[in-house]
């Protein structure tokens, strides 16, 4: 055993994290991001420990069989989180001995698993039984032979003996893939994929058991919530150590099987998307639980929709296929034995949409390297501070001016895909040509010119706008045909120059700048016939939470997020929304990525319209869901949803096989984030 040392001189609480696999690896970065803990990782792999030390984290080289080390390290840290094993009895005894020697002063989180609730091990429960973590007596009656239960019983007894603040966290089926340096996949879904590859079809048990699940990032956020609530006294585990970590969705293994078959067929692995029943039950049978205690503390899931779970299945299918070499990770160079890095150039990566697009590429199973086109090194350093897990796959290119063709020559070198998001926003200006039209139009043309001279590029996608399809000078009414992606805004430069510099003028000028940039991009392709594909993404009013790296306060909100804040929150009366249709920023990022990755997609202008929106309805949703913040939400007597023109955003859903994030989830996720931000 070797150790780089424990203890702290900073006054921070010390955390021992055992295991940095799927859950532990993701949790490590979330702990680091808080900045309030001094962390030590215990693991047995030299390669893993080397990576951890590169993050400035202390390490201990040991395995779960090193009982003396486990005991010593538990006694040496304020908090221990065991993310390595839910079934190792001897390791559990060694860690509990550390708690005993510490005299009840430590915090310990044992990460168990919802297999303990499987009805195959607890047949006395009805099929619709839901385990509530506010009812510890029900959990205490679980069969000792259920998965993880004997280890849980040891920690339950330690809790009863007052050996510390002991938490038995019980996550359900974890999915999603952990981030960055410790990128990993789960257990159950990959097992299903492996079986489908072996059998030539996907399968599920004939009884089609119901089960719960949780995204790995929501699991990490739950652990952070537990730690914070133990620290501030809002959570007591003295008489009840159990905390379920699940989202509000339920699924069945038939859903998993059909999605696996669909993805294997898509990748050409199966000739047909065949699904069959096999056996009676999958894994532990039915297991269902609720997370009452976390919700009472204010935790909520960010990845709680059925679509999120389907995305997680897709990620894990592709990850398994990549590991097995069944689909190529990179495009071969002329030397087939030396694969090329998959590099994606993302412009505007400091912004709201640009950062979402860049992160969507980074989180992809294909492990893209993302080159961020930014105005300064300070913006790149903000990225590496906020997302250290991606530092080995981030590159920086400085772009001072969007209109300088020379800048883009180096930016596109060796790049496979380009996502051009950067464009000036709607704001008052004395010079519409200089500040809006030229950066939007010439900035787009300049990057396309550079891309034409770079043979490695296969596809370009750029961020257009609904405003390239809708003529704001001549809007349709609610009884007119809906706008579709083939509709065009025919506004001109002359109209932009004639606009007033205040009032509606800046928005109309912005609309014309997006229109003319869109027109110029497709004209360029028609005239030059480049070797790469071009597609455009035209979102409506963008909503949802931000992941921009420099988001520290309200003043950092960008674009329509800032507009929504100024219209809904910390105002006396709610203002009306300019565009009555919305798209969540996460769906905008999704379509950018899919539009370059799918080789069949070319020459498309995807109009993204998830549904109707109004700030009045947004205010009512937030006030009802977040009563503790009602005094910050503006007053409105207006109708929830006034009549408006129609939009057809279905083609993107159909082509890329997803469902738009609904309005209520989008605005709640946005509202929770914004209401938690300081004003300065």
TrEMBL record:
One of the entry's Gene Ontology molecular-function terms is: aldehyde dehydrogenase (NAD+) activity
NAD(P)-binding domain location is 21-119
Please indicate which superkingdom the organism of origin belongs to: Eukaryota
Report domain NAD-dependent epimerase/dehydratase positions: 344-598
| One Pfam family here | NAD_binding_10
Q: Could you tell me what this protein is called?
A: NAD-dependent epimerase/dehydratase domain-containing protein
* InterPro entries tied to this protein: Epimerase_deHydtase, NAD(P)-bd_dom, NAD(P)-bd_dom_sf, NAD(P)-dependent_oxidoreduct
This entry carries the following GO cellular component terms, namely: cytoplasm
């Amino acid at each position: 055993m070797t150790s780089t040392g424990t203890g702290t001189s900073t006054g921070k609480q010390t955390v021992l994290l055992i295991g940095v696999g799927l859950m532990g690896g993701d949790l490590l970065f979330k702990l680091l991001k808080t900045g309030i803990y001094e962390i030590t990782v215990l693991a047995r792999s030299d390669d893993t420990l080397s990576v951890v030390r590169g993050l400035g984290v202390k390490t201990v080289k040991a395995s779960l069989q090193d009982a003396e080390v486990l005991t010593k390290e538990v006694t040496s840290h304020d908090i221990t989180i065991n993310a390595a094993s839910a079934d190792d009895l001897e390791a559990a005894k060694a860690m509990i001995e550390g708690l005993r020697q510490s005299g009840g002063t430590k915090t310990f989180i044992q990460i168990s698993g919802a297999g303990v609730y499987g009805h195959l091990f607890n047949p006395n429960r009805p099929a619709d039984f839901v385990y509530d973590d506010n009812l510890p007596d029900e959990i205490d009656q679980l069969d000792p032979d259920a998965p993880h239960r004997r280890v849980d019983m040891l920690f339950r007894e330690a809790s009863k003996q007052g050996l510390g603040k002991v938490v038995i966290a019980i996550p359900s089926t974890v999915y999603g893939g952990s981030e960055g340096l410790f990128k990993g996949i789960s257990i159950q879904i990959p097992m299903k994929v492996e079986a489908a590859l072996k059998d030539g079809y996907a399968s599920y048990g004939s009884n089609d058991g119901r089960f719960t699940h949780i995204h790995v990032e929501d699991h990490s956020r739950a652990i952070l919530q537990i730690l914070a609530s133990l620290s501030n006294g809002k959570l007591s585990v003295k008489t009840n150590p159990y905390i379920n970590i699940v989202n509000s969705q339920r699924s069945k293994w038939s859903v998993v099987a059909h999605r696996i078959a669909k993805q294997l067929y898509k990748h050409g692995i199966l000739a047909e998307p065949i699904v069959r029943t096999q056996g009676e039950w999958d894994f532990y049978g039915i297991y269902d639980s609720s997370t009452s205690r976390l919700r009472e503390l204010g935790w909520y899931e960010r990845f709680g929709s059925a679509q999120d779970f389907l995305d997680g299945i897709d990620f894990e299918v592709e990850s398994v296929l990549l590991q097995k070499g069944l689909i190529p990770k990179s495009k071969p160079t002329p030397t087939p034995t030396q694969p090329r890095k998959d590099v994606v150039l993302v412009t505007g990566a400091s912004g709201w949409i640009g950062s979402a697009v860049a992160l969507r590429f980074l989180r992809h199973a294909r492990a893209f390297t993302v080159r961020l086109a930014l105005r300064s090194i300070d913006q790149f350093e903000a990225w590496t501070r906020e997302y250290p897990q991606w530092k080995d796959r981030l590159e920086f290119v400085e772009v001072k001016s969007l209109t300088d063709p020379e800048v883009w020559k180096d930016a596109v070198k060796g790049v496979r895909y380009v996502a051009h998001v950067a464009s000036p926003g709607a704001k008052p200006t004395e010079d519409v040509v200089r500040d809006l039209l030229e950066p939007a139009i010439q900035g787009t043309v300049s990057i396309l010119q550079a891309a034409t001279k770079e043979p490695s590029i296969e596809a370009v996608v750029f961020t257009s706008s609904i405003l390239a399809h809708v003529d704001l000078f001549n809007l349709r009414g609610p009884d007119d045909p809906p706008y579709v992606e083939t509709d065009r805004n025919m506004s001109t430069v002359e109209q932009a120059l004639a606009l007033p510099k205040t009032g509606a003028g800046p928005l109309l000028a912005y609309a014309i700048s997006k229109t003319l940039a869109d027109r110029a991009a497709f004209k360029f392709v028609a005239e030059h016939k480049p070797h790469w594909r071009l597609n455009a993404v035209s979102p409506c009013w963008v909503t949802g939470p931000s992941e921009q790296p420099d988001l520290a306060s309200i003043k950092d909100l960008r674009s329509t997020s800032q507009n929504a804040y100024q219209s809904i929150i910390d105002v006396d009366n709610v203002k009306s929304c300019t565009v009555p249709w919305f798209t969540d920023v996460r769906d905008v990022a999704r379509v950018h990525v899919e539009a370059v990755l799918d080789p069949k997609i070319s020459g498309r202008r995807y109009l993204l319209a998830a549904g109707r929106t109004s700030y009045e309805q947004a205010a009512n949703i937030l006030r009802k869901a977040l009563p503790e913040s009602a005094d910050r939400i503006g007053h409105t007597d207006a109708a929830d949803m006034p009549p408006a023109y129609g939009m057809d955003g279905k083609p993107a859903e159909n082509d890329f096989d997803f469902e738009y994030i609904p309005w209520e989830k989008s605005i709640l996720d946005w509202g929770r984030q914004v209401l938690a931000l300081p004003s300065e």
